[in-house]
Amino acid sequence: MFSLSDRTDSWQNLLSGLGSARDKSTYTHLTSGHTLSADYLEQIYLHDDIAARICELVPYEMLRQGFSITIDDKDFIWKGMIEIIRDALVKSRIFGAAFIYVGVDDGLTQDQRLAPQKIKNVRFLNVLNTKDLTHHSFYDNPNDAHYGKPELYRLNASYHHRATTIHESRLIPFFGTSTLDARKFPPSILQRIYPVLQQFHTAWQATAHLMTDAAQGIFKLKGLHSAVASNRSEDLLKRMELVDMSRSISRSILLDAEDEDFRRDSYGFSGIPEILEKMMLRLAAAARLPVSLLMGQAPAGMNATGESDTRFFYDQVRAEQEALKPKIEHLAKIMTAKENARVIIDYPALWQMTDREKAELRRMEAETDRIYLQEGVLLPEEVAVKRFSSGDFAIDLSSRQELAEDERADEP
Q: What are the residue boundaries of the Anti-CBASS protein Acb1-like N-terminal domain, all occurrences included (predicted)?
């Protein structure tokens, strides 16, 4: 009977070497990579267009058409709220975490729990990231629902302000990724895809270097070694300059028929476009984005529309929007000082229909309404209210009803 230490839960073949010490693949293992610093992440975002697109695409799509807030059946608008939330979402993806610091007048210090019922007004909404904040203390009561989570944050000192301790209730957190340790900030989304991003740019840079040598001129000269050995290098350089000058001026080359020869060799680029395409797919998979949106290119190939990828992406964006709702609701309750208010967040549709799709939808609705009218399920007035009381095709039904009543009154 084998002991636990002697067991190997894998396949082995001693004859072929599969799974044994002769198998090279058994030496492949994961090593902990270098953690990217906040300053380096900032530089990547500022100077790398692909990294910036990866960080911005989802937040911009989430809030592309904004959202509406209704508090106790009344519309609520705060100027600049969408821009502040978008900024927090983007920075959470760059740095791993970002926070909206809600500055309110509630008569308490910043290191005390926020008192919503005492809020007089909201003075500011500032977006902070992991460069601005550090963990100060954590909830240490095992019987508390917040056990292990940060209780106080320290706003790092700078030239403009002194270090300040802020209670977590005054901060609305945004996390770009998940973390296994609540005592640490989550990693940036760029951390995990950094090796793939590196390989992607290396492939494109290598291709760009190949383009500079796409066609290489080769000049053959009889007695080259003896000329170099006899210190006639200057004469050789002058001769090559003369050849290049004559080629540029007359588009022809003057050569000695007996001693000289010139040809141009072209580099073959077959297979490179396919490799670059696979690199794009690999990067899109790592970033969890459709390659058509990440690279800004139309889908290629027969019957390729990219519609399925785009719809799948929009489903992900819709899920992110739903996850964002509690944060917006919490922020709205703080800004209105109504802790028990009924807040409704509504997002417009992500998928915008074309004119042809809109016309087809109206045709199907009209056909459905015709069946309902024929079967007596609905009255004409009910159909009118249902289809034309709101939306893009809204009409003034009250004036229409008045005209109908006038027509009936004029009838004998």
A: 42-370
